[in-house]
Amino acid sequence: MAQRKAKRSWPNFPKTDSKLVWLLIALALFVGARAWLTENPQHNPWAPLDLRDPHGMTTGVKLAALRGDVPACHAVLQRSEVEFTALEPTGEGECRREDRLIPANFAFSPGNPETTCPVAAGLALWMEQDVQRLAREKLGSPVERIEQLGTYSCRRMYGATSGRWSEHATGNAIDIAAFVLEDGRRIGLLQDWEDEGSRGQFLRAARTAACKSFGTVLSPDYNAAHADHFHLDQGRAPARGACR
Ligand SMILES: [Zn+2]
User: Fold this and answer.
1) Confidence (pLDDT) at 238
2) Residue 4's pLDDT is what?
């Protein structure tokens, strides 16, 4: 049986009218797209980064642009109401630190660590958008403080005598061992990573989410050296380094 051809349903405008119609459609699309980007700044490449906004298509690019630009990064923290104390540059050679601050928007133990600004921005975004939500959803209580194992350490990777310098050498990384919840429970990497229940689910989801806010994320899945902590650093653009 012969197939019937679908009839063309476009209105038959005179030539000048049809140009005008297409122009109006293009204008409507432009106005609509602009309104949508204003409503969704996390997808808008021209909107300044605010860490209180959800992750969007342009968040990673904006975070990456903060590397090496201390004033721009401080402006993002201030805009996002992330409190911090800026410190003077210090150190020499591979361990020279031009970018040093202590974030004060969240509690860490044994104390709030000294980090680079991009690490503080990553932590703020990850905690605000992912960790607290996951803790409430999976464990029924938000996180009260993070147990950290350190940020700055002037050394090469894995403490070797040669080879690449660690991101810890400039304080551009943080190691996290556990999350202490408001209800007093402690969710630790060493004890709970393999847990099939809510504790393990929380840790594994927090690891995967961290890859949107950090350049490199290493967990117990990566190797035995990370069995007891998450290593988060901003050596690369978010989600460009290892995420495992
Ligand atoms: Zn580390």
Assistant:
1) 76
2) 58
pLDDT at residue 134, rounded to an integer: 98
DSSP element (H, E) containing 204: helix 198-210
Q: Do residues 230 and 202 make contact, with C-beta atoms less than 8 angstroms apart?
A: no
- Amino acid identity at 109: S
At 194, which amino acid appears? E
Q: What is the CATH number of the domain that holds 175?
A: 3.30.1380
Question: Which pTM does this prediction carry?
Answer: 0.88
Q: Identify whether 118 is part of a domain.
A: yes
Residues found in the chain = 244
Neighbours of 212 (CB within 10 A): 20
Distance 75 CA to ligand 1 centre (A): 26
Residue the block writes with tokens 């050596």: 235
Asked whether residue 155 carries a pLDDT value surpassing 90, the answer given is yes
**How many angstroms is it from 29 CA to the middle of ligand 1?**
47
Residue 62 forms part of a structural domain: yes
Measured in angstroms, how far is the CA atom of residue 40 from the centroid of ligand 1? 34
Report the DSSP beta bridge partners of residue 97.
90
Measure 132 CA to ligand 1 centroid, in angstroms: 22
Which whole number is the average pLDDT over 195-222?
Answer: 97
Residue 177 · residue 89 · CB < 8 Å: no
Would you call 234 helix, strand, or coil by DSSP? Answer: coil
Q: Is residue 152 part of a domain?
A: yes
* pLDDT(28) > 80: yes
Domain around 85: 35-89+98-233
- Residue 29, in any domain of the structure: no
**Per-residue model confidence as pLDDT tens digits over 54-66:** 999 999 999 999 9
Q: Structure tokens of 17? A: 């009218």
SS3 category, 63: helix
Query: Could you give the number of structural domains in the chain?
Result: 1
